[in-house]
Design brief:
about 100 residues, three-stranded antiparallel β-sheet, globular, GIY-YIG nuclease family protein, UPF0213_domain
Length: about 100
């Protein structure tokens, strides 16, 4: 059974947010942290994992990603703070 992840990254000062979806969170975070992917996260150095959800349903993961992207920043902040009030990095080394 495949797993899918919806995740939120931010910068070190928590000013910029990025919402993504993947089927391999560790690999995807490695790519973001090492700037292997061209685009927004590389340009703005968005590498700190502050929130993620896991599901076995790819359609649910994509729908949740779209939902997050439609939210205002304040609502995303509240979501992060509901499980990570201090906005600490959730990815340490090679583990979550």
């Amino acid at each position: 059974m495949n797993r899918y992840y919806v995740y939120i990254l931010t910068t070190e000062n928590n000013k910029v947010m990025y919402v993504g979806v993947t089927n391999n969170l560790q690999r995807r975070l490695f790519e973001h942290k090492n700037h292997l992917v061209e685009g927004f996260t590389k340009k703005y150095n968005v590498t700190k994992l502050v929130y993620f959800e896991e599901t076995f349903d790819v359609k649910a993961a994509i729908a949740r990603e779209k939902q997050f992207k439609g939210w205002r920043r304040e609502k995303k902040n509240q979501l992060v703070e509901s499980i990570n009030p201090n906005w600490v990095e959730l990815f340490i080394g090679d583990s979550l």
